[in-house]
Amino acid sequence: MLTEFQKRKLMKLFSMYDACNLGVLKISDFECLAQRLADLRGWKVDSSSYEDISSKFIYLWNRMRSEIKNVYNSQPEVLNNPDAWSTQIRTQVTLEEWFTYFEVVLPNPDYHQEVLTLSDAIFTVVDTDQSGNLDKVEWAELFRAYNISVIYVDETFAKIDGNGDGNLSKDEVMTMIKEFYFSNDPEAAGSYMFGPI
Predict the structure, then answer these.
(1) Are the beta carbons of 127 and 138 closer than 8 angstroms?
(2) How confident is the model at residue 79 (pLDDT cuts 50, 70, 90)?
(3) Is residue 158 over pLDDT 70?
(4) CA-only gyration radius of the chain, Å
(5) Other beta carbons within 10 Å of 162
(6) pTM score of the predicted model
(7) I need a labelling partner for 165 at 20 to 30 A (CA). Which of 48, 84, 115, 159 fits?
(8) Sequence-separated contacts (24+) of 60-66 with Cβ below 8 Å
(9) What is the pLDDT of residues 83-129, one digit of tens each?
(10) CA 126, 129, 135, 140: dihedral to nearest 10 degrees?
(11) pLDDT of residue 71
(12) Is 116 exposed, middle or buried (0-12, 13-18, 19+ CB in 10 A)?
């Protein structure tokens, strides 16, 4: 069962993935995020780099829908009506269904690795100068891609720049990602890496 604090973080994440600002998630949101990230590097739609990042977002979309379908299909009222889940889940995911998804995947160690794999790929894309670190300009680009207000860039950057060197190493970012997704500690700096929750 998700805590209220976890739900607040997941609401933040939901809004980040809701690229079209419709209040539900659709495949177009995931395609849009892949496009925005690819645009940071000037990757064309038919390039292997574009295909790589796009496939990771489409996998996430499909995995989420599959997990939600499995939950629905385990409920007696759905077993008596096998198409009950499909009308809505086929094309969109609501916030409540988003919570359902995370109740299933957060305890799964394999999901922890999936989060880190996707985060690593996003880090590589956003690291536009390929320095192995993110500076504040690159951090702001990540915020723009995910519809996060850039007014939080300075505050969040300072929170997660553990050594205060003005750059975010991959290790720093990955540590904060783990806190954001998997910590239930309101004091954990990573919980606020994308701004207020």
Answers:
(1) yes
(2) very low
(3) yes
(4) 17
(5) 13
(6) 0.90
(7) 115
(8) 60/30, 60/118, 61/25, 61/27, 61/30, 63/114, 64/25, 64/93, 64/98, 64/101, 65/89, 65/90, 65/93
(9) 555 555 568 999 999 999 999 999 999 999 999 999 999 999 999 99
(10) -40
(11) 86
(12) middle
Residue 80 has pLDDT above 90, yes or no: no
Q: What is the CATH number of domain 109-197?
A: 1.10.238.10
Q: Give the start-end residues of each E strand in the chain.
A: 133-134, 168-169
Backbone angles phi, psi at 169, to 5 degrees: -75, 165
Identify the architecture of domain 13-105 in CATH: Orthogonal Bundle (1.10)
Q: What six digits make up the tokens of 63?
A: 């995995």
Q: Where are the domains positioned within the chain?
A: 13-105, 109-197
From CA 169, how far away is CA 77, in angstroms rounded?
49
